[in-house]
Write a sequence for this structure.
C-alpha cells in the first residue's frame, strides 16, 4: 500500500525528490519488516529454548519416577546386596594386607639389590684403579727391558768390533 502511494507521489512531484521520498518509504517499510522478523526470530528462539528445557525436565522427572519405583522394589534386595558388599569388603581388606606384605618383601629385595649394585660399583672402581696401576707398572717394566736390551746390544756390538 505504501508502495502504491509512493508511486503516485513520484508521478505528481519532481523526479529527484520523489525518488528520495520513495526510497525513504521503502526503507521504512523494510525497517518495519526487519523489526517484525527480528521479533518473530526472538519468539521462536525462546520457544525453542523452553521446549528444550521442557524435554530435559521431563527426562529428569522420568528418571526420578523410575528411581522411586526401583527403590520401592529393591528394599529387600538392598539388604542382601549390603551383606554381599560387606563380605566383599572383608575379602578385599584381606587381599590388601597380603599385597602390603608382598610389597614390603619386594621393597626389601630392591634395597638389597641396590646395595649389591653399589658394592659391585665400588668393586669395579677398585679393579679399574688396580688395572691402571698394573698397566703403568707394565709400561715401566717394558721401558726398563727395552733399555736393558739396548745396553746389551751396544755391549755386544763393542765386543764384536
Amino acid at each position: 500500500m505504501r508502495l502504491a502511494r509512493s508511486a503516485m507521489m513520484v508521478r505528481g512531484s519532481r523526479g529527484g525528490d520523489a525518488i528520495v521520498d520513495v526510497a525513504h518509504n521503502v526503507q521504512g517499510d523494510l525497517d518495519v519488516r526487519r523489526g517484525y522478523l527480528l521479533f518473530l526470530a526472538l519468539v521462536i528462539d525462546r520457544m525453542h529454548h523452553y521446549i528444550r528445557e521442557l524435554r530435559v525436565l521431563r527426562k529428569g522427572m522420568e528418571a526420578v519416577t523410575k528411581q522411586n519405583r526401583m527403590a520401592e522394589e529393591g528394599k529387600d534386595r538392598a539388604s542382601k546386596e549390603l551383606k554381599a558388599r560387606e563380605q566383599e569388603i572383608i575379602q578385599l581388606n584381606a587381599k590388601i594386607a597380603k599385597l602390603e606384605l608382598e610389597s614390603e618383601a619386594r621393597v626389601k629385595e630392591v634395597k638389597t639389590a641396590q646395595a649389591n649394585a653399589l658394592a659391585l660399583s665400588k668393586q669395579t672402581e677398585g679393579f679399574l684403579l688396580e688395572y691402571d696401576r698394573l698397566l703403568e707398572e707394565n709400561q715401566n717394566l717394558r721401558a726398563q727391558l727395552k733399555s736393558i736390551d739396548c745396553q746389551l746390544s751396544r755391549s755386544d756390538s763393542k765386543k764384536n768390533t
